[in-house]
Amino acid sequence: MSKRFVIEAVLTAIYGELMLPSQPVDYIIPYSTIRELYELKDSPEPIMPDPADEAHVRVKIQELIAFFEDPFNRKKIERALAVPWRISPPMPINDRVTFTVMNSFEDAQFGEGFDPIETEIILCAMKEKAPILTDQVEFLEKAIESEIAAQIYDIDDFVFAVEEGISFEEWKSL
Fold it and tell me: Is the pTM of this model over 0.85?
């Protein structure tokens, strides 16, 4: 059985280790974060501080966009987009990683404390009972301070989350 995590699409481009987990992983990706890839692709703003890393990540973003635009994957995504909060069938990336796209939408449930993408990520995690993977310390801190009912791992703890992480049920009982 694969571990499931809610994650922004761009993080899979930035952190290559996410594509090489020690165990099978399914990344649940809110659809709005896929749309965000197009904005990042066309943005003159740097994504990474190092120019070599910047070039590499931009190539990976292009590859992700091409993956999601592939007719077979596009059809799976379009099925999910027909109904709010529906998830697509899994889209295999390699023998250990699959993407599942969720038709999420921001409903201001958490007020102005979280931006729309953060809200969608939280709601996806709550609906799917899956932990969030993030590299944004501010988001992590806000979620803890707000006592959000979602399990969150920092990207730096990815190996732990995959190999030893606690289940949603165990986490809820803490």
Answer: yes
Q: What is the pLDDT along the chain (174 residues), one digit of tens a residue?
A: 789 999 999 999 999 999 999 999 999 999 999 999 999 999 999 999 999 999 999 999 999 999 999 999 999 999 999 999 999 999 999 999 999 999 987 666 666 778 888 989 999 999 999 999 999 999 999 988 988 888 999 999 999 989 887 666 665 655
HEC secondary structure over the chain: CCEEEECCHHHHHHCHHHHCCCCCEEEEEEHHHHHHHHHHHHCCCCCCCCHHHHHHHHHHHHHHHHHHHCHHHHHHHHHHCCCCCCECCCEECCCCEEEEEECCCCCCCCHHHCCHHHHHHHHHHHHHCCCEEECCHHHHHHHHHCCCCCCEEEHHHHHHHHHCCCCHHHHHCC
